[in-house]
Amino acid sequence: MSRIGPTSPIVLLIGLIILVAMAMAGLAGTEFALSRYLANAIGQLAAFAVLAISLDLIWGYLGILSLGHGLFFALGGYLMAMYLLKHSFEITATVPDFLQFMGWKDFPFYWAGFEFFPYALAVAVVVTLLVSGIFGYVSFRSRVGGVYFAIITQALVYVAMLLMFRNDTGFGGNNGMTGFTVLFGWPMGTSGMITALAVASLLVLAWVLLGCRWLVGSRFGALMLATRDDETRLRTMGYETLRLKLIVWCLSALIAMLAGMLYVPQVGIINPRVLSPELSLEIAVWVAIGGRGHLVGAVIGALLVNAVKFWLSSAAPEIWPFILSGLIVLVVLVFPNGLMDIAKFKFVRPMGAKRLAADLGESRP
Amino acid sequence: MKLARSALLLAGLAGALLLAPPARAQAQALDRAGLVQELCGDAGAMGRAGATLAATAAAGSDEDRAWAAPLARAAIDRKLGCDETGAVLEEGGLDAVTRTPRAATGTPRAPLLSLRNRPVFELGDAAFALRGAPDPARRAAALKTLERRPALIPERLLDRAAEAETDAGLKEQIDTLAQTAALNAADPAARIRAIGRVAENPSRRALTRISALARDPAYEANPEFRAAVDAATARIERGIAIGDALATLYNGLSFASILFMAAIGLAIIFGLMGVINLAQGELIMIGAYVTWLVQQGLRAVAPGLLDWYLILAIPVAFLVTAAIGIALEASLLRHLYKRPLMSLLATWAVSLFLMNLVRVVFGTQNLQFETPFYVTGGVPVIGDFIFTWNRMFAIAFAALTLALTWALVRRTPFGLNIRAVTQNRDMAACIGIPTRRVDMMAFGLGSGLAGLAGLALSPIYSVNPQMGQNFIIDAFMVVVLGGVGTIAGTVVAALGIGQINVLIEPLWGAVAAKVIVLLMIIAFLQWRPEGLFAVKGRRK
What we know:
The complex is a heterodimer.
Chain A: H1 9-27, H2 36-59, H3 69-92, H4 97-102, H5 117-141, H6 146-164, E1 177-178, E2 182-183, E3 186-187, H7 191-217, H8 219-229, H9 231-236, H10 241-267, E4 269-270, H11 277-290, H12 295-315, H13 320-333, H14 339-343, H15 353-357
Antiparallel strand pairs in A: 1-4, 2-3
Chain B: H1 2-26, H2 32-39, H3 43-59, H4 62-77, E1 80-83, E2 86-89, E3 94-95, H5 117-132, H6 136-148, H7 157-164, H8 168-183, H9 188-199, H10 204-213, H11 217-221, H12 223-273, H13 280-301, H14 309-331, H15 340-362, E4 378-382, E5 385-388, H16 389-411, H17 413-423, H18 425-430, H19 435-457, H20 467-482, H21 487-508, H22 510-527
Antiparallel strand pairs in B: 1-2, 2-3, 4-5
GO cellular component, one term (chain B): plasma membrane
Protein name (chain B): ABC transporter permease
GO molecular function, one term (chain B): transmembrane transporter activity
């Protein structure tokens, strides 16, 4: 793999992210501080960027398209929301809305222990690993791939959505969970907390970027690209691709879960709509627009699409779907590698660009 | 319990009321002046008058009935003016007895019905209406009133009404009510006969009626009566069980035919090109909208043909959606055959676009469809199973589509080309099959089939811009389970998923049914990753 020079886009991007984070932290409380809305938007965008990286890892570098990544995002989100609600309940004794709706006196038994963040985090990791591990194992073992895999993941997230829409599951039902008041003992909703969350999200984004860059640049990353480009040949040469795919798949799920945990305290609500197949498809669109197989591209795609969406959903919500579908068609037909096709002639020379400029080795199912 | 108690209460009431009237009903000539006098009397007298009116409606001569009919209505509406010489019907200003015009003397008093008498008069009024009203709707309404108090219905009223009834549906309802009334009759032999007749048509309502009799005093006292009730209960329960099983099968079959219609187009396209068309749901939706437009067009141009819009829309729905599909293929998917995952995103963009376009043009509300006579109602078979025509329409439509698609794919040169390209694209190209043209036509065929699915759905489901989303994932599951590009696989998978869904739904709910079906499919793919019926050919 190519060496990372000081001017390579990923270094520039990580530097920029850290710079923004430091500036936000430094300026907090002064008159130059960002407005609460803007700070919150930056934090949410960072969470989405982490989500996009998680999908790019599996789609861009392994050629496996998941249309169900919203499931892991929601897993992190829901478990974070459970921690927040239980924690708020411990400190301020506010009873969550959904318990009142259902007329329940107490939390269901499986909420026990969620007031401790380490426990909630551990549960999130274990559940995510279990779900992604079992699903990935059975799918990859029977060599379900390509379009088949995409469709089955979509069905998975759809079914999860139907399940969470039920009110008797103890996870808030169709209203979801909201009304978080305290995080780590600090009151939520203050500008200090908003800035802190945004800065934390940016730092996590920087770390995830760095970690993934290290991974795809390693020998393991070379195997990932080889699997993507010609799995049969790799298997013939004696490599076990099942384990490799499973590891990357679970890692990708964990990153998506992390994004969900960052996202929920910032929007202050989680409901089954994050499990809708549309959101999961949109993640793929961010990555496709930014450029598959480029970590920088995934981040820029997520930031760009969501920034436009944030802006349009207040300015002109009805034209957003048309713009989105137009963007997709444009990217799919004219710029197969997304923004990277436009950008690379100017300043980007991403690793493996020559190969990526050709089609991304997507084979038929 | 509640029902049984009120039935008992009514039976008691009926006893009290019916014991008096027969004696009066026997009196051949109606004492008209006496009746009017009672109508103007105290609550007790009015109660007797009400009973007389009901008895007249059942057994009186035609003239007496025609004379007495307005009295019940007038008493309910307080349009009866009592004065010293008798009473005046305020509507028309006629004397209540002689029906000659006269003005009321002094200040007429309109008697008020007591709470106990009011139902008696309403019953009487309904009884007159059932036998005399010219308008069937009025007779049906009267029957509804009578149904509320079967125990109070005078003897022979329903038999005579049924004899004179011209409307077949209404006649049947009257007969049913007559049975109910007979179940509450005083004579045990008549009751046992009635029990037998009720048990001939098992349904949940019949079961409620019969099992209520188990709390009847006669059940303890009369062993014959008890035996009849027990036998009837067993017979009805068996009938209901059979009916429920048939209903489950039937619903599963109709759901399966919808699934099949939604999935067959997908299966052909996927098998041929390896492209999953995420816009298939929207093509279904557009098929339904085209059907609606045809209906609106007929309403404007040829209202006489309005009932046939479902049939006339068939070619229109097919051609419009096929044209959209061909346009889609030629402009977009043609460039993406080497990149199936990108074609997934592209078709999703199309789906987003179409859904929002329809939303902007037509709005988000559900469309209103006429219900033609051939999809209205149904035939009750056994128990609570009704062979409904709208579901039958979907099933027959799916069967016809299956036959035509099968013939097209198996018996025409175009179908031969589709099969050749599906099995081995390169080899087919080598022997001169224009694969790109075949792709385009097949995409049009698959899209047109989606349009037909939308048409078949429109009498059963609500039609709105989001409707496609509800079917698309189920349809994918059918394709994945059935195997790529086989008609037989699609049929079997649709039948299987449809039946399993319908079987699980009543036990654990619709969501659980979906979850279980998905898990079963994932498990199944462990065993046969290529689906039920894999096309023989190279694994691509």
